[in-house]
Specification:
This protein is an all-alpha fold. The chain is built from 2 helices and no strands.
Amino acid sequence: MRRVLRGVCIVALAVGAIWIFQGIGALPGSFMTGRSEWAIAGAALAAAAALVLWLASSAPPGQGR
């Protein structure tokens, strides 16, 4: 279960980073390019994924089955 959670969090981190770069205009080619709300949403997604990833890795073994 932890592997699945880690995988989902890593994908969410990557998606969040893409949204941030599109939102600030560094990654063009989308309707999200240059729109600050996507940068904010990406930052929130990346932060939440990082928090869950950190909490999952700091939990004692046997927890979260």
